[in-house]
């Protein structure tokens, strides 16, 4: 009888752990990414943000790529200007 009780307790604890893990995992999927700053970079001598060409706010992935691309062009232009 004691052995059955121990098995039931262990099965219950494992089930609760799995359910808790699945709930935590689904809550992380539902969160939206934090907003990114609409950074300004010099393009053809004019300050430009991601939202300027379209006139609308950029989605997270486009803003992230624009910021990464803008930082890379800024580094390159500084490198070329110093040579």
Percent range for β-strand residues: 5-15%
How much helix, percentage-wise, in residues? Answer: 55-70%
Strand order of the largest sheet: 1-2
Mean pLDDT: 76
What is the number of E strands? 2
Major sheet attributes: 2 strands, antiparallel
What Rg do the Cα atoms give? 26 Å
Spell the H/E element sequence. Answer: HEEH
Uncertain segments of ≥5 residues (pLDDT<50)?
76-83
Oligomeric state as shown: single chain
Question: Rough shape?
Answer: rod-shaped
Category by helix and strand content: mainly alpha
Describe the protein's architecture and organization.
The chain is mainly α. Helices cover 63% and strands 7% of the residues. It has two helices and two strands, in the order H-E-E-H. It has helices at residues 2-30, 60-82; strands at residues 41-43, 46-48. Strands 1-2 form a two-stranded antiparallel ribbon. Strand 1 and strand 2 form a beta hairpin. The longest helix is centred in the N-terminal third of the chain and has 29 residues, at 2-30. It is rod-shaped and about 80 Å long. Residues 76-83 have low confidence and may be disordered.
Concise summary:
With 83 residues, the protein is mostly helical.
For the structure shown, list the relevant keywords:
two-stranded antiparallel sheet; 83 residues; rod-shaped; 2 helices; disordered C terminus; 63% helix; mainly alpha
Secondary structure topology:
Blueprint: H1 2-30, E1 41-43, E2 46-48, H2 60-82
Antiparallel strand pairs: 1-2
């Amino acid at each position: 009888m004691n052995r059955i009780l121990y098995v039931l307790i262990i099965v219950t604890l494992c089930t609760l752990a799995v359910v808790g893990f699945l709930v935590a995992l689904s809550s992380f999927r539902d969160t939206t990414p934090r907003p990114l700053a609409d950074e300004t970079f010099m393009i053809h001598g004019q300050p430009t943000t991601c939202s300027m060409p379209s006139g609308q706010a950029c989605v997270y992935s486009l803003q992230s790529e624009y910021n990464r691309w803008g930082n890379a062009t800024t580094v390159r232009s500084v490198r070329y200007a110093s040579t």
